[in-house]
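Contributing: when you submit paired examples, paste them exactly as shown. First protein:
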Amino acid sequence: MKIVIAPDSYKGSLSALEASKAIERGVRKALPDAKTELVPVADGGEGTMDSLVAATNGRKVEVTVKGPLLEDVQAAYGILGDQETCVIEMASASGLCLVDPDELNPLITTTYGTGQLIQKALNDGCRKFILAVGGSATNDAGVGMLLALGMRVLDEDGKPLGFGGAELSRISEINTEDFDSRIADSKFLIASDVQNPLVGPDGASSVFGPQKGATPAMVELLDKALSSWADLVEIKTGIHLHDKAGAGAAGGIGGAFQAFFPAETKRGIDIVLEHTKMGEKLSDADCVFTGEGQIDYQTASGKTPMGVAQEAKKYGIPVFVLAGSIGTGIEVLYDHGVTSIHSLVNAPMPLKEAIDRGAELLEISAEQVMRTFLGAIKNSR
C-alpha cells in the first residue's frame, strides 16, 4: 500500500518536513510495510522555498540583506534543481517574523531587502523567479524593492526619499533610467492568493495594515499614500493599479510586480504542487495525509490541505487532514476531496503543551486514522 504524506508546517510547532516524518511514524505503527512518499509542501507562504528546493534537489544561498527596519538580517534564496530558477520568500527579508511586535510600524518598514535578494540572484545568473510574498511587515507598495534594483523616487525638489509607506505621499517623480535592465529579460511568477486591490476599503492598508501594526489613523494615511503612488505609476506606465486585483498583495508589492516586472500570478499551492510533481506521486497512491496548524473556512481559499485534496480528488484517493485545531466552516472542504478531518488534541491541554507535543500528537493521530482506514478496507471485502 502506498501512502503519500503531504502536510504543510504546523506554525510554531513543526516544519513541514518534521510533520511529514511524524505522520510517517504513525502510519508505520499501523502498517509497518507501507510504502510511504514524503512530500512536504507549502501554499506560497513560509516553507515554500524549502519545499521547492527539496522537491527539485536544489540548493539554498544564504546572504545578508536589510530587514524591514533596515537592520542587517540573514536571509536566503533557493536555486531549484534546474540551476536557473530562483525561489524567494519575501518574509525572509521583509517579514513580520523579523520585527518585534512592539516595533511593528508600516509607516517605516521597507521591502528593500527583498529587492536585494532579487539583485543577488540576478548576479547569480538567475532569470526565472518564483516570489512567495506572504507574511510581509511592509506597506510600501514594493518601492523599497524597486529602489534596491536601481529605480529612483524623488520629491518635488528632485531629492531622493526615505523608506516606508509614509514616504509614498511625498514622491513626485519615478525615474527608471537605472532600473536593472536584466529584469526585462527575466520571468517572475508571483505566488499569492490575495486578490485585494491596492487602495480603498478592501485595499492593502485597510485589510492587512492592522496586522502589521497600523492604527486606524495610520491606515488612513497609508491608503492615501498608496493612492498617490498609484497615480504616479499610472502616469509613468499607463497601468491603473488603484483597483487592480492582486495589487494589494503584501502591502502593495503585488502592484509593483504588475507595473514594472514581466510577471504573472498563481495560487501558491498550485505552484508548489506543480514543482513537486504531486499529481504523479498521487496517481498510484492508496491514500494521502495532509494538514496544518489550523483548519477552518479559510482553508478552502487555497491553503495546502485544500490544494492537496483537489489534486487527490482527480484520482479518487481518500484524503485525511490532521489539524492542530479545527475552526468553523470546514464542511465546504468535503466537497473538494477531503475525506475526513482530525484534531491532534486528544485530551484537554494548554496550547503550549499541544505545540510542544506536536510531533507526538501527530504521530498518534496518524496511527489511529491509518488503523481506521485499514479496518474499513478489511470490512468492505
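Second protein:
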Amino acid sequence: MGKLLDAMRSRFLTKDLPKTAKGQFNALMRKEDGNTARVAERLGVSRRTVQRYVSGERSIAKTKPEILDRLQQEVSKDHQPRVTARAVKEAQRKGMTIETRAAFGFSSAAGSTDDPRMRRLTEDVPDHLIPEIFEAMRNGDEDRLNELLGQGLAEEYFRTSGPDAENLDVEFSDIDYVELDFR
C-alpha cells in the first residue's frame, strides 16, 4: 500500500487490515458467510479455485499477483464499514486537514509552468471532496486518493483568483510524509 492509504487507514480506522493473503482470504470468507460462489465472483476466479483455497489444496499466498491485488481491494471495501461511516460523517461535520511534505509541480494548458519542488503544507481539505476521499480509501485506490488530495491542495493553496490559476493543474508526488486529521 501507499503512503496516502496508510495515512488514511491509520487515522480513521481502529483495526488494520489483515496483513497476510491467508488472513485476507479468511476475512473475505467470513464476510460472505463461507459462500464460495460469492467469494469466487468477487475475486474473479472459479468456485472450484476458492474451494481449493479453503481445503488447502492450493495456497492463496502463491496465487497470481492480480488475484492478490483483487483480494486486498475486496477486503478493504468491507473493512470496518461502521467505523468508516462514522469517520466520514465526522469529517463532513468538522472538516478535514492534510499536512504533508511532498513535491508539487504545475502544468497548465500552455505546458509546464514550474518544476516540482518539495513543499511543506498544512491545508484544509475542501468539504466536497471528503466523500470521494473516503470512497477511494474504501476501494484501496491510491492513485485516486492522490488525485483527490492533490486537487484539494490545489484548490486551497495553489489556485488564487485570476484567469491563469483556474486552469492550473497541480502534481502531488514524492510524498515524504502525510498526516490527515479532523479540523
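If you have annotations for the second protein, write them as plain sentences, like these:
The chain has nine helices and three strands.
The chain has a mean pLDDT of 85.
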